[in-house]
Design goal:
Number of strands of chain B: 0
Largest sheet of chain A: 7 strands, mixed
Order of helices and strands of chain B: HHHHHHHHHH
Number of strands of chain A: 9
Distance between the termini of chain B: 17 Å
Helix content of chain B: 40-55%
Largest sheet of chain B: none
Oligomer: heterodimer
Strand content of chain B: under 5%
């Protein structure tokens, strides 16, 4: 130490002595002078890339784990065969019957009500709400749905929205049988689209198109209008924007949280022992998904209506969204991941990569100054 | 998820293990196979660039493009060999060779100043200007005893990187 201080006195006190640094070269210096080693050692970035290839939290959200086969020995296999026979031969036809009956009753009541009561809006709306709840109950019965509702039932008040985690379109049906919500949905093709444009219109639905960027402003406006109308049905939003496999939640979109209304969270958790209710829209059409449900033993799930939340002073909509997501994930016992659900359909924006580049560049520039 | 025809037999696992010089245990190879099948959505037997890019954690990595050339169109055996540098059982030599291959884009065993500049560009993006990158790189090269027009080979990389040990490990999740 003594030699260093004497050599320092001889030189400019602002500039460190280069010779001192060179002798300390053999010792590992995490900061300080830049060396060739620091540029060649790309192992941290490579480790991140390798880690992402081996396992990543985003893909895990959409993985549908096939149930463990249990029918592999002499006495279990016939039992399983018997089960298949019962499910496909007895349960399925009965369920189809129930569903058909339900549709007949529904349509025979709905069409007259819709056409004849055109003038008496309040009565018509009340009856249509009741009928939609009825057909949803028939749907749930057709899968032998065992739904346990916890918490106070939602009430119709202005300036409130309901948000829930999303696993499949049946989430909507399960919630709808209890309360006639208005919902915001992606417009689907086929018979689902037909249902959307006719029956769901009556409970008041808002349509959006994921692929249209401009759509967002229009949708935000429609949401606001709906929430402010006192006669409108309570609005149900699935802020994840896509179906996730009920083990994780992806980031909530802030649209529902910047309307200036109370947010009432709803948590839904399916019991996988009976059936995996995750609808992987890339792998199955909704019809196939429904048929799968109708040939399983039951759909068992828990629905928790949680305490309404308001945006705290000084909280941004994104922070509010994340706070509500935490409440829902904690109640349903599922994990949170920091990804946007829409990454299923598009690539991440270059911003994330630039963030990493910026961090590295700044550390290099900082160490340049250290010389 | 539904291609149950491609189940690994014990022979397959041992063949893959040999190919990657026993850097992965048999259980890890089975896990990697599940991962491979999960990424290979169209069941083509290899993972295309598009399928890799659908993993957001990978797509945001600054070196993703460079790694593409190395991983595009790999079958499962080659996929495991590619990842073997990340195993805790991989030797230092193996890891340094791997880093060398990332730099040596044309695979001729030589890394020139332009290759070093390219990787630095990938890592820093627009946050360091072109005019700043060259002199910084030239300077550290000269301080390490090389010249701007020096060609680096594997033994140079071993000398520079090998002295302090490399931390480049990824754990394969085993169910």
């Amino acid at each position: 130490m003594a030699s260093m201080s004497s050599s320092n006195l001889e030189l400019d006190l602002d500039r460190p002595n280069i010779e001192d640094y060179l002798t300390a070269d053999s010792i590992q210096e995490p900061r300080g002078k830049l060396r060739l080693h620091d540029f060649l050692d790309i192992s941290p970035t490579l480790t991140e890339a390798g880690g992402a290839i081996v396992d990543d939290s985003f893909t895990r959200c959409f993985k549908s784990n096939p149930p463990e086969p249990w029918n592999w020995n002499v006495y279990l296999f016939p039992l399983w065969c018997l089960g298949v026979v019962v499910r496909y031969g007895i349960l399925f036809p009965v369920r189809v019957l129930i569903l058909t009956l339900g549709w007949i009753i529904f349509l025979s009541c709905y069409i007259p009500v819709h056409l004849l009561l055109k003038g008496h809006d309040k009565l018509r709306k009340k009856l249509e709400r009741g009928l939609v709840e009825l057909i949803c109950s028939f749907f749930v019965a057709s899968w032998t749905g065992v739904v346990k509702y916890h918490g106070p039932r939602p009430c119709t008040r202005p300036k409130q929205v309901f948000v829930a985690n999303h696993t499949s379109m049946i989430d909507f049906i399960i919630l709808e049988q209890m309360t006639a919500f208005a919902v915001i949905m992606q417009k689907h093709p086929g018979w689902v689209g037909l249902l959307q444009s006719t029956i769901l219109e009556s409970v008041g639905c808002i349509w959006f198109n994921r692929s249209e960027a401009k759509d967002r402003e229009i949708v935000t406006r429609k949401l606001r209008e709906h929430v402010e109308g006192p006669d409108n049905n309570p609005l149900l939003i699935f802020p994840e924007g896509t179906c996730v496999n009920n083990h994780y939640t992806v980031m909530f979109k802030k649209g529902a949280f910047e309307l200036g209304s109370t947010v009432c969270p709803i948590a839904i958790k399916y019991n996988k022992i009976f059936v995996d209710a995750f609808w992987n829209s890339k792998k199955q059409s909704f019809t196939t998904h429904l048929l799968q449900l109708m040939t399983s033993w039951a759909v068992v799930c828990d629905v928790w209506y949680l305490e309404p939340q308001n945006m705290k002073p000084g909280e941004t909509p994104i922070q509010f969204a994340e706070r509500v997501r935490e409440i829902i994930s904690a109640r349903a016992g599922i994990k949170m991941v920091p990804w946007d659900g829409y990454l299923k359909y598009s690539r991440p924006s270059p911003k994330h990569r630039e963030h990493k580049q910026q961090a590295f560049a700044e550390s290099v520039l900082r160490r340049l100054k250290d010389k | 998820m539904g291609n149950t025809s491609s189940i690994l037999t014990q022979y397959d696992i041992e063949e893959v293990q040999e190919h990657c010089n026993n850097t992965f245990s048999q259980q890890e190879i089975v896990s990697l196979y599940q991962r491979f099948c999960q990424l290979d959505r169209n069941s083509g037997g290899f993972i295309s660039a598009d399928e890799f890019l659908s993993v957001p954690e990978f797509a945001v990595n600054p070196l993703a493009q460079r790694l593409f050339r190395m991983i595009d169109g790999l079958n499962f055996k080659e996929f495991v060999a590619f990842l073997s540098a990340f195993s805790s059982r991989a030797t230092l030599q193996h890891k340094v060779e791997y880093i060398f291959k990332v730099y040596d884009s044309d695979g001729n065993g030589k890394v020139a100043f332009s290759d070093l500049l390219d990787v630095l560009r990938d890592l820093t993006g627009q946050f360091i200007s072109e005019q700043q990158r060259e002199p910084v790189l030239t300077q550290v090269l000269e301080e390490a005893g090389y010249k701007k027009d020096s060609i680096l080979v594997l033994s140079d990389f071993m000398k520079i990187l090998g002295s302090n040990g490399l931390k480049m490990e990824v754990e394969v999740p085993v169910d």
